[in-house]
Amino acid sequence: MKKIIILIILFVSILLGCVTQSQSSVLFEEEGNFSINRGENFINLNISTDKEVYYSNELMNIKIEIMTEKEIKDVYMMTYGIVDNFGRYRLNDTRLLNISAGKNLITFEYRTPSCYGCAGISPGNYTLVAVMMNGNDTIANATCEIEIRG
Predict the structure, then answer these.
(1) CATH code of the domain containing 82
(2) Dist CA 80 CA 78 (whole Å)
(3) How far apart are CA 17 and CA 24, in angstroms?
């Protein structure tokens, strides 16, 4: 009986230690939207495109929306996706930003690659990823799905 009580105490201690060591908690997560509470700063990151279906060499408008309660300086916003047949990201964009409190919008254009020949991608579904980093820490990330047709 004594061993069982010791095991239960050990198990509860380990469980509580794991729970209290977390510095951030996920509030909700779904495709294209990620919210996190990091200490005293709530962050909501969303990535979207102007359409769901694109064709070869078509212009894509990408929008990244960041909502935060506090200013964050020296943040790297990395956006990547559309992996070709050689394992390379055809969309690969990194920007150093200072994020102000409130709503922040980042918009940029990207021309989809050709689905033929040396471009190395096939028609199909692809994931776009937005990652917000401060130093080596990932602050938030979000994804969205697109389809590229030939």
Answers:
(1) 2.60.40.2550
(2) 7
(3) 14
Q: For residue 86, give the DSSP letter.
A: T
**Could you give the number of structural domains in the chain?**
1
Tell me 116's DSSP state: S
Is the distance from CB of 139 to CB of 34 less than 8 angstroms?
A: no
**pLDDT tops 90 at residue 20:** no
Q: How confident is the model over 83-140, as pLDDT tens digits?
A: 998 899 999 999 999 999 999 999 999 999 987 766 688 899 999 999 999 989 999 9
Domain, as residue range, for 104: 24-149
Distances (CA, A) of 48 to 87, 108, 149, 150: 23, 11, 18, 21
Two structure tokens written together for 10: 């050990």
Terminal-to-terminal C-alpha distance of the chain: 68
Q: What is the pTM of this model?
A: 0.73
Please tell me the distance from the alpha carbon of residue 44 to that of residue 64, in angstroms, as a whole number. Answer: 10
